[in-house]
Amino acid sequence: MQETFDIAIVGAGIVGLAVGRELLHRNPDCRLLILEKEGQVAAHQTGHNSGVIHSGIYYKPGSLKARLCVHGAAAMLEFVRAHGIPYEQCGKVVVATQPEEIPRLQELYERGTANGVPGLRWLADAGAVREIEPHAAGLCGLHVPTTAITDFKMVAEQLARLITAAGGMVRLNAAVASITHTAEELILKTLSGEFRTKYLVNCAGLHSDRVARMTGADLNVRIVPFRGEYYEIAPEKHHLVRGLIYPVPDPRFPFLGVHFTRRIHGGIEAGPNAVLALKREGYTRTSFSLQDSFASLSYGGFWKMAARYWANGMGELYRSWSKSAFTAALRKLLPELSQEDIHPAGAGVRAQALDKNGKLVDDFLFVHGSRAIHVCNVPSPAATASLKIAEVVVDAISDMMVTNKRGSHVADRSPI
Q: Distance between CA atoms of 172 and 179, rounded to whole angstroms?
């Protein structure tokens, strides 16, 4: 007779694996299944992450992002230390290069303070900025000493090892094709067989909206993929960057602007820009999927967003195809950099939820379904916050299990 699992998780990125670890930590007897469509864990957003453990200065006080990022950063540092995963608390400087950016930088300082980010220091002038980053330009800045870097793919791999050691099953090459319901379970048909589960946690990232709709969930959002492209700084110019150097972000967008990131295994990346990806897993400019492109371009919310932000979008697209334009954006932060000092590097794709009114969903979004929790919007700082996101999701699925045992109805589309 086919085994029925207590809980199945779709997606073995860092969030799905963190949820699995938390489930088994609370209930060692849980029959847990994690389904991953690729042949390895952390194949997409986690594996293409820049590795920054964010501190929590960017997020609106009281939001899930703010709370889970600050506590998640501390938990992540504790995890990597405990498991021997390399990390470095190198700190970050956010610099204002134009007078109009100074009030926004002040707001970041106030947000970070309200969110409980420790050690924040206002850098009142260019000289104070250069004490931290000698080659950076800036009228003033904000020093965030707690910002760190690590390897989130290694974190995900360690989580997978802990899950299997605790008796959980991680099934690779198991893309979910359909989901059907019976009275007390869900049947997941995958490319490597059929699985039954009492409850489902959807951590499918770039495909989370599709998996949610397989269960019958009526979502008010759609995942629109944005590709972020990076350049690598030539080794002879690594001395220009001590830690991380960021611009003041535009508050209208959930993107942080092109910046400089030191990598834990060596090297310095510059970027990313943010352009619409014509494939949900499209890591090159020429990547294309008819299904994915149609999903974005046929969505009314996309065109409402495009009408509002078309000028910004065209600027990002221009920087994507023009190395000189990309260099010009970088030189605002690091004037000594030349076009010859940067070389094309990797790219990542962000799973960004967009609502029907064309609004980019800013906070984390979790949706209740029938016997399911759908993690529908967990872009940056999801990797940083993953261990605390897991606690929220496990709280929710535990409450759902208790409620169902009492015979109550769980309404669809109830946000956590």
A: 18
* Continuous segment of H or E residues that includes residue 95: strand 92-96
- Give the CATH superfamily of 88-148+224-355: D-Amino Acid Oxidase, subunit A, domain 2 (3.30.9.10)
Both structure tokens of 296 = 């974005």
Considering the domain 4-46+153-220+363-415, what is its CATH architecture? Answer: 3-Layer(bba) Sandwich (3.50)
146, 91 Cβ separation under 8 angstroms: yes
Residue 374: count other Cβ atoms within 10 Å of its Cβ.
27
Cβ atoms of 287 and 274 within 8 Å: the answer is no
Prediction pTM value:
0.95
Nearest-angstrom CA–CA distance, 15 and 45:
10
Q: How far apart, in whole angstroms, are the C-alpha atoms of residue 319 and residue 270?
A: 13
Which helix or strand (DSSP H or E) is residue 26 part of? Answer: helix 14-26
User: Residue 112 in 3-state DSSP?
Assistant: helix
| Cα–Cα distance measured from residue 179 to residue 4, given in angstroms and rounded to the nearest whole number | 14
pLDDT tens string 50-87: 999 999 999 999 999 999 999 999 999 999 999 999 99
Q: What is the pLDDT of residue 254?
A: 63
In the chain, how many H helices and how many E strands?
10, 21
Other CB atoms closer than 10 Å to residue 192's CB: what's the count? 12
Residues contacting residue 38 through CB under 8 Å, at least 6 positions apart: 12, 44, 172, 173
Confidence at residue 318, expressed as pLDDT on a 0 to 100 scale: 87
Model pLDDT, residue 335: 97
The domains of the chain are located at 4-46+153-220+363-415, 88-148+224-355
Residue 32 structure tokens: 């847990």
pLDDT in tens, 235-288: 999 999 999 999 999 876 667 789 999 999 999 999 998 899 999 999 999 999
